[in-house]
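Student: Hello, beginner here. Can you help me understand the protein record under this note? Any guidance would be welcome.
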Amino acid sequence: MIESHDLYHEFPEYQDTIRALMLSNDDFAKMMREYTEVDLKVARIEQRLDPASDLYAEELKQLRVRLKDRLYKMLVTGGNG
């Protein structure tokens, strides 16, 4: 089974903050959409639904981590990260 990296599952204690920032912070919302898109691409590769080289898959995973780190900083600072 493929593990979900959805931010609502990754940071359940910040669900309300995620929702609030999605509505009030355009930078957060844009980055969240990008994170979700990258996470979906990784999941499809891991499920072997989309072919991809190992290098591309690793690049996507690294991008996902960087985005998650930036989003987390924004969550803990109320959008000011």
Notes: The longest helix spans residues 54-76.
